[in-house]
Recover the amino acids of this structure.
C-alpha cells in the first residue's frame, strides 16, 4: 500500500488511515492526549504522509505510525502544560466499552473495579519509559517486535524494561499483585 501512495494514489493512503485510525486513537488516549486524541492522530497521519519518503521499505507501518502518534502526543501534552491522570487515559482508552459486564456478580464487579483502580494507581507511579512499554505491550496489545519498532528501542531493551516495569508493578500492587 505504501508503494501505491508513493506512486501517487491518494486512495491508498485513505485505506491506511482507515486501517490504523482505531489503534492510533487508542495509543494517543493511552499516552495522555485526552480530548485532543483525534487532533493528535490527525496530525500524526499528516506527518506520516509527509514523511513517507523516509519510510523504510519492508518495515511495518503500524509501529512506525504509532511512534509518530507517541511523539505528537508528547508534544501536545507538553504544549498544553497539563497532566492527565492514568485513570483518565484508561477511561478514554476503553471508551464506551463496559469495564465489567452488566451480567457480572456485584461482589465480583466491585472487586474487579478495586483491582483496576489499584493497577492504574500503580501504573501512574512508573517511570515514563516503563509506563510506555507496558502501555504498548499490554494496553495496545502489540507484540515485542512491534513495541520495539514503535518505541525505537532494541528488542532486548523492550524485554528488560518490560521485566523491570512488571516487577515494579508487582511491588506497587496490594498483596504483591496476587489474585484474591
Amino acid at each position: 500500500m505504501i508503494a501505491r501512495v508513493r506512486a501517487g494514489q491518494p486512495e491508498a493512503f485513505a485505506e491506511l488511515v482507515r486501517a490504523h485510525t482505531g489503534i492510533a486513537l487508542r495509543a494517543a488516549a493511552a499516552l495522555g492526549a485526552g480530548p485532543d486524541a483525534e487532533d493528535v492522530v490527525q496530525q500524526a497521519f499528516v506527518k506520516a504522509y509527509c514523511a513517507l519518503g523516509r519510510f523504510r521499505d519492508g518495515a511495518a507501518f503500524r509501529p512506525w505510525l504509532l511512534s509518530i502518534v507517541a511523539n505528537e502526543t508528547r508534544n501536545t501534552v507538553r504544549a498544553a502544560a497539563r497532566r492527565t491522570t492514568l485513570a483518565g487515559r484508561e477511561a478514554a482508552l476503553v471508551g464506551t466499552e463496559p469495564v465489567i459486564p452488566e451480567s457480572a456478580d456485584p461482589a465480583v464487579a466491585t472487586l474487579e473495579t478495586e483491582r483496576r483502580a489499584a493497577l492504574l494507581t500503580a501504573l501512574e507511579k512508573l517511570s515514563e519509559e516503563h509506563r510506555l512499554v507496558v502501555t504498548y505491550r499490554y494496553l495496545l496489545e502489540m507484540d515485542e517486535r512491534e513495541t520495539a519498532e514503535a518505541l525505537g528501542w532494541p528488542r532486548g531493551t523492550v524485554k528488560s524494561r518490560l521485566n523491570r516495569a512488571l516487577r515494579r508493578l508487582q511491588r506497587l500492587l496490594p498483596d504483591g499483585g496476587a489474585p484474591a
